[in-house]
Amino acid sequence: xxxxxxxxxxxxxxxxxxxxxxxxxxxxxxxxxxLFSGNKRAFKSWTRNALLSAxxxxxxxxxxxxxxxxxxxxxLFKIDLNGVGAGSTYAELNLFLKVDxxxxxxxxxxxxxxxxxxxxFIGFSLLVLPVVFVAGAPLQLLCWYLALAVLFNSSLxxxxxxxxxxxxxGHPRRGIAELIIAVVILAVFYxxxxxxx
Length: 197
Description:
Helix content: over 70%
Radius of gyration: 18 Å
Strand order of the largest sheet: 1-2
Number of strands: 2
Distance between the termini: 26 Å
Strand content: 5-15%
């Protein structure tokens, strides 16, 4: 049983690595669609975008998991963290890491990539493990809900882009070179591994 579980988790990890770009793109597109579907200038109710606010509240556990994973990974990569922050702009809940000083671009991209793969691995594990262990219906539904919440929150965030911009600004020449090298490495890697199911 332990060997089977190890095999399953290894297969899940490989699958998570392979499908990470697709999950990030789909989650980002869904979040962007929800964001741009709201009112741009004025409030008509308690929020500017009732649908996005509701989704961020419903999927808040996924945001907590993703933020915790990112915190652990960024700590392992020695990124200068100053805790976790939270915001509710226009009633859209948001968790984020506070960074004292932007890291080098290569370190930041590596940390973001590893934390995203780890979150997606957790999401797919929550989809598969209840079936393997023949869990009851309430536990299965809870795990699937958490899995969807984690996968939905695996999108590219504005804070990620801002932090990357700050890292590039802090190390202009080296940062651009590191960004180009990272993009090329990921492109070559996924051209061999493939993306998707």
